Known about the structure:
This is NADH-quinone oxidoreductase subunit H. By secondary structure, the protein is mainly α.
Amino acid sequence: MTPAVSSLPAVQGLAAENLGVFGRDPWWLIIVKAIFCFAFAMLTVLFSIVWERKVVAWMQLRIGPNRHGPWGMLQSLADGVKLMLKEDLVVKGADKVVYILAPIVATIPAFMAFAVIPFGPANNEISIFGTRTPMQLTDLPVGVLYILAVASVGIYGVVLAGWSSGSTYPLLGGLRSTAQMISYEIAMGISFAAVFLYSHSMSTSQIVATQHDKWYVVLLPVSFIVYIVSMVGETNRAPFDLPEAEGELVGGFNTEYSSIKFALFMLAEYVNMVTVSAIATTLFLGGWRAPWPITAFWAGANHGWWPLLWITIKIQLLLFFFIWLRGTLPRMRYDQFMKLGWKVLIPVSMVWLMLVATVRALRNENYDFQRIVLYVGGGVLALLLLSLVVDVFRDRGRREPAESGAPGDRFDPMAGGFPVPPRPGQTLPPVPRRRPRGERQLVNATDTAETADKEQEGDNA
C-alpha cells in the first residue's frame, strides 16, 4: 500500500477525533448556541437589506434610505414592521392549509443549514458561562450532504406556494423557480465532490481544518467559479431572478401572498443568500481562518473569538458580490439561463471532477508532478482536438444545404395564430433588414422623380 493511500484511514481517524468534541454540551448551552445561529442569520439579513439598498443607490447616483435610524440603518426593521401590519389576505380559491404552510416550509430550512457551519476551530474551545465549547452548534460526518438536504426541502415551499394559490401565474412562477433551483443544485453538488476528494471528508469542520496551508479556492478554482454561479441561480437573485416576469405583471410564486407570509418569503431569500455565502466561505475560502497577510505577523489571529470576525467579513464580501451583480447585470432570458446550467455548468463540473480525481489517483500512485501534468494535459488536449473536429464537420453539414439553396425545414411561426419559437432542426424565414439611410434616401429620391415624371406626362396628355 502506498503512503498516500495508507494515510487515508489516518485522515478519517482525525475527522472522527475532531467530531468527538461535539455532543457533549449541556442542554442550556445547546439552546444558547442555536439562538446565536438564528440571531447571526437574522442580523446579517437586516444589515444586508440596508446595505443592498445603499450600495445600489450609490451605483445609480441616488441617496438611498436615510430616514429611519442613523444613516438609514433601521430601514429594514421598518420594512419588516410595515409588512407585519399589512392586511393578511387568503385567496378564496387557495388550498388554505398548504397556502399557509408553504412560507414556513421555505423559511425554516434556510436557518437549519447554520447548525453545521463552523464559526471557529473545534480544538480551540471558547468559554461560555464557564463551560468550554467549540464555536459550532454541531457537526456530522456528512455535514455538507445535510446542507444539500435541507436546501432541497426549501424548494417544496416554493412550488407548493405557487400551486396552492389557485392562480395560473403563481403556478408558472413556482414551476420556473423549482426548475431553476433543481438544475443549479446539480452543478453545485458536483462542485462539492472535488472538495471531498481533497479533504477526504464531508464534515464542515474537517474541510476547514484541511485548508490550514492553502485554501481550496486556489487548488480548485473551477469548482469555486461553478459554485459561485450556482449559488446565484439557487437563490433566485439577479441576473437569475426569473420567477418574476414583467410580461406577466406579477412577482412569481409569491404573487398571491401578503403581510407576514410575504415577509417570510423575502426572509427566506435573504437567509439563503447568507447560507450559500457561509457555505462558500467554509468550503473554498478557508472558513473561519484569517487571510494570509494577517496570519503572517499575528500568531493568535485564529484563536479565541477572532475567527468569528474573519468568517463574518468573508460572508459580507460575498453578499456584496450579490449586490454588485444586481446593480450591474441585466436579467437573462429563461432559455439562456437553463442552457447555462445544463449545457455549460454541469458538463464543465463533470469534466473538472474527472480531472481532479485523475490527479489525486496519480498522486496516490506516487507519480511526480511533471508526469501528472503530461498525462492530464495530454488528455485535455486530445479532448479539445476531438471537440474541434466534431464542430468543424457539424458546421460543414449545416452549411451545405444553405449553400445549395435547399429551403430546409422551414415553418411559419404564426401558423397556430400566435408566435411560437422554432424547434430543433427548424429554421425561421429570413428577417427583412432595414436599408441604410443613404440607400433609403436614394430610393426615395428615385421614387419622387418617377412620380413627378408620371404627373408631367399626365399633364401633357
